[in-house]
Amino acid sequence: LAFGCPGVLAVLEMEAAAPGECELTRLLQDKLQYEMRLQYMKHNFPIDYTVQVQYEEVLRPSNVTRLRNGTVSEVALRYLWFHLSSQAVLRIREVLPEKHPSWKYTQELGHLFDALGKEYSKYRQTDVEAVVADLVKLVHSAGTENRRKAVRPKALLDNCLKVMRMLYGAPCELGTD
Which region is the signal sequence (predicted)? Predict the structure, then answer.
């Protein structure tokens, strides 16, 4: 999609507000293509630039595998992925001035996560396993600032895409290209 056209973004936002998880994850996958992550999250930043995130905000495929082996449900894992990925986009946006070349890209990602949040608004933390609910609470609570690590913006979005494909690939028939 050509996001440079003003009307296209408006249509995307309208479409992204109503469809279910699969449609939104397909739109996210399109936005998280390698070339876009490379341009907006690496080339538009200084060499070795990092963002400070909480240790728990980094969700890797290995974390998901460990949680799955601990019998955490797929629904709970998707809930966790949504919270941590949308938080990662917020962390990146916090360091960007509005005139930064990656601002609009992160804004578009934020809109897609907002729309996905509407899909997840029906879940309550009591509906998911305690381990996932505790992680979500920890990420959104104050006082965890001392548990920070430096992560490259592109790495945050790389993990976001990899985990999204793990969790939504089969049920939503996401491609891997």
Answer: none
pTM: 0.80
Residue 91 · residue 156 · CB < 8 Å: yes
Q: Give the count of beta carbons closer than 10 Å to the beta carbon of residue 149.
A: 13
CA distance 177 to 167: 16
Q: Residue 163 CA to chain centroid, in angstroms?
A: 9
Per-residue HEC secondary structure of 149-160 comes to: EEECHHHHHHHH
pLDDT for residue 67 is more than 80: yes
Q: Taking a C-beta distance cutoff of 8 angstroms, is the pair 97, 103 a contact?
A: yes
The closest alpha carbon to 141, from 155, 127, 125, belongs to 125
What is the spatial distance between Cα 12 and Cα 14, in angstroms, rounded to a whole number? 5
State the pLDDT confidence band at 75, using cuts at 50, 70 and 90.
Answer: confident
Average pLDDT, the chain: 80
